[in-house]
Amino acid sequence: MEAFRQAVVNTLERRLFYIPSFKIYRGVAGLYDYGPPGCAVKSNVLAFWRQHFVLEENMLEVDCPCVTPEVVLKASGHVDKFTDLMVKDEKTGTCYRADHLLKDFCKEKLEKDPKITEEKAAEFKHVIAVLDEFSAEELGSKIKEYGITAPDTKNPLSAPYPFNLMFQTSIGPSGVSPGYMRPETAQGIFVNFKDLYYYNGNKLPFAAAQIGQAFRNEVPNPSLISPRQGLLRVREFTLAEIEHFVDPEDKSHPKFSEVANLEFLMFPRQDQVSGQSARIIRLGEAVSGGIVNNETLGYFIGRVYLFLTYLGIDKERLRFRQHLANEMAHYAADCWDAEIECSYGWIECVGIADRSAYDLRAHTDKSGVPLVAAEKFAEPIEVEKLVITPVKKELGLAFKGNQKMVVEALEAMGEKEAMEMKATLESKGEVEFQVCTLGKDVTIKKNMVTISKEKKKEHQRVFTPSVIEPSFGIGRIIYCLYEHSFYTRPSKGGDEQLNVFRFPPLVAPIKCTVFPLVQNQQYEEVAKRIAKSLTAAGISYKIDITGTSIGKRYARTDELGVPLAITVDSTTSVTLRERDSKQQIRVSIEEVASVVKEVTDGLNTWNDVLWKYPTHSSAASED
């Protein structure tokens, strides 16, 4: 695996798919530049993402700023909770993720210590299983108990402390308006919900989508996150996110039947807990059997599977893993990760989560703007509504400056709590009531609040929508695609191994190359005519008129993943060669651009065109 990974990375960097940023200044860990072929692959992946999701699902695409005011991320919970627990090398000051160090220690003991007892092995497995639930104190205690030191220096480590992963900045020259570089694109969609709902004709369900840069001040993990890890974990990265808003009482999907018969590797929660492996499950059965929470979540799992496999991800090395109970946020109904296996193991590349109504409620509470939807009734219906009316004059006399907080707490009561308070007030005249914002109980008297139930006719039901969120880490998907597409094959003489990327035409950085067989004025003129017809057809190409052998030129473009090569060896027809099979056919100069377009656009396969045109064999070719 190490040798394979090194071959892939060396090829990617040598052919400028991506390189470390600021290389002449020794670079910065976690920052990378995409070179010309890398930009083209990324652009093709994003274009297909837009086609597969935004266009086919009729989504509303938005583009929001990367700089986000602090108040927005305070409401979403990122300011207080978007943290990792860190430890420091006490002598050098180098930082490490505390959970990563503990996990790596346990895994290494399990894999490499021949003297480990059954009891100790069970302990290490338990630590790995519950790692996400550890507090700072528990992590620190385990690190101390196991004698874990800094990986590079073996120096002692500090106690764990929280580190916020967001890059902080200030908005405007005064510095009084704090902000952050966004850690995800989703919040821009949530805060625009009201306008998007109106734009959509005040109808649910609908989905909004956004592609953009996100920023996380990740700390390298010595076992996984290092400058050599390229696109797997970086500090600035491209996210493509979808927020599908749906009625929480109806999470069915009209197109679920289109994906219900898909079968692929799934790793449900109960299988993970019981020590089983991922297994092939039909998506329809997973939803009907309650493994996947609802049809809309299931529909997006199916669409994500199709997206990744169309890109060229090996379906045998793709699985959907359900989050364990300790991984999920308290408000989430269900969460799944699309994980792709590469040389580093199983890597989370897409998260698909039913986030319930948490995000819209959080922004409603903080902003005071109701982010809600409404279902209009055909006929008005009579409902019994709880009415809580605080008597502000009496509350003001009793609580003075704290009146507002007491009023808000009373109005926020649920039906059960309110009716219990009503009964106690009627029987005893007063009741002890906890006001969380004050951090204490207060005495509420009968004259301070009236609680009743009233019958009302309603013409609509107002509710906060739930959201299903598929979130795609584009850089991770692309890196896994590089590994899944890479292979080597012997040269004609058998004296060296040649590198090949078997990209599907859909994502290939260049669709075809044009080679005059020899340096000849006539052939070069024909090559220019073909190039013009390729441009008119919207096909990316590269002309190579160097004097090197045709075999070497083929090898150079195979290494870039170019699916087709046109060799100009006459003035009337050309040779068209397919990358992986190395088969060649004869096509007229007038037809060649349209044949290339049919294959690269997916209208025909190579096998479809193979029988239409005569095959070609030449002593001048690599074969």
TrEMBL record:
Presence of keyword ATP-binding: yes
Pfam families per UniProt: HGTP_anticodon (PF03129), tRNA-synt_2b (PF00587)
Organism domain of life: Eukaryota
Localisation: Cytoplasm
Catalysed reactions listed for this entry: tRNA(Gly) + glycine + ATP = glycyl-tRNA(Gly) + AMP + diphosphate
Chain ranges of the Aminoacyl-transfer RNA synthetases class-II family profile domain: 143-490
A Gene Ontology BP annotation from the UniProt entry: mitochondrial glycyl-tRNA aminoacylation
Gene Ontology MF terms: ATP binding; glycine-tRNA ligase activity; transferase activity
Keyword terms: Aminoacyl-tRNA synthetase, ATP-binding, Cytoplasm, Ligase, Nucleotide-binding, Protein biosynthesis, Transferase
SUPFAM superfamilies per UniProt: Class II aaRS ABD-related (SSF52954), Class II aaRS and biotin synthetases (SSF55681)
InterPro entries the record matches: aa-tRNA-synt_IIb, aa-tRNA-synth_II, aa-tRNA-synth_II/BPL/LPL, Anticodon-bd, Anticodon-bd_dom_sf, Gly-tRNA_synthase/POLG2, GlyRS-like_core, tRNA-synt_gly
Listed NCBIfam families: glyS_dimeric (TIGR00389), PRK04173.1 (NF003211)
Record-stated family: Belongs to the class-II aminoacyl-tRNA synthetase family.
Protein name per UniProt: glycine--tRNA ligase
Organism: Rhododendron griersonianum
